[in-house]
Known about the structure:
It contains eight helices and eight strands, in the order ββαααβαβαβαβαββα. It is of the alpha/beta class.
Amino acid sequence: MKIGLDFDNTIVSYDELFFALARERELIDFDFPVSKTHIRDYLRQLGQEPAWTALQGLAYGVEIGRARAFSGVVEFVQACRTQDIPLVIVSHKTRRPYFGAATDLHAAARGWLHQQGLGDVEAFFELTKEAKLARIEAAGCTHFVDDLPELLSLPGFPTTVRKILFDPLGMHEPAADVLRVANWSDIAHVLLWQSMAA
Length: 198
């Protein structure tokens, strides 16, 4: 077994950070939902796409240190270490923000991993979705966890890899060959405890 993990919105939770950044720039009110998706949709509805793009550059770049890991992620990695189960992070991420300071987003992501005590996990940040799929296959993943159902459904997704959709809000109806999980405890149960019992 070799488990592959996506990075943004799978390992890293951005809702609180986007809320804080939007509030600091007075783009939303205090009673606005603490939700990256709601903030994005609201700013786009107002015709504020540049403001949304700028927030993304900050959140994924210089401010990423303020983002938190999803509950259970660090414990999951520790359990994999204990059981000698190899992990790899494979993410589709641009090198620079589309707007704002020319931060190296790949370096920022690696810095966040070190900050969380996850710096020893092998990580690849690919510039295209096609390169991400090729890396998942080349890395020898047997399972892959991602928050995007469209990524898991791409025609080039490796057919031998078990697809796991991380969907904490239950927003998606996955394809028949995709296992949906709501939290990292469920991921641990499926990938670690069930495999041990098998």
